[in-house]
UniProtKB/TrEMBL annotation:
One GO cellular component term: mitotic spindle midzone
Keyword entries, A-Z: Cell cycle, Cell division, Centromere, Chromosome, Chromosome partition, Cytoplasm, Cytoskeleton, Kinetochore, Microtubule, Mitosis, Nucleus
Keyword presence, Cell cycle: yes
Source superkingdom: Eukaryota
Protein name (Swiss-Prot/TrEMBL): DASH complex subunit DAD2
Annotated GO biological process: attachment of spindle microtubules to kinetochore; cell division; mitotic cell cycle
Localization, UniProt: Chromosome, Centromere, Kinetochore; Cytoplasm, Cytoskeleton, Spindle; Nucleus
Family: Belongs to the DASH complex DAD2 family.
């Protein structure tokens, strides 16, 4: 009986270690999320500026008196596994 309990406790400890590591990873991402969004915004704005320069000449950032904004970035799963995972959870 105590041997079985010890094995179950070891399994629980392993799961808690995994949970702790995952929590730390999520905390790290969330701590840097503002920087990540800022980098994405800068890259998107730069890409929009480059495209406008190629299309229209000098990049003033204005179009018909209004400031142009970069297009919205959207993440699209690129592999079948992530599509299957998405379908399972929705």
């Amino acid at each position: 009986m105590s041997h079985t309990l010890a094995i179950q406790m070891q399994g629980l400890e392993d799961k808690l270690v995994t949970l702790r590591d995952g929590t730390e990873a999520i905390a790290c991402v969330l701590a840097n999320w503002d920087s990540v969004l800022q980098a994405i915004s800068m890259a998107s704005a730069k890409a929009a500026g480059i495209q406008k320069t190629l299309d229209e000449g000098p990049n003033t950032g204005l179009q018909d008196g209004m400031l142009t904004m970069p297009s919205t970035l959207v993440r699209i799963p690129a592999d079948i596994k992530s599509k299957l995972r998405h379908n399972v959870y929705t």
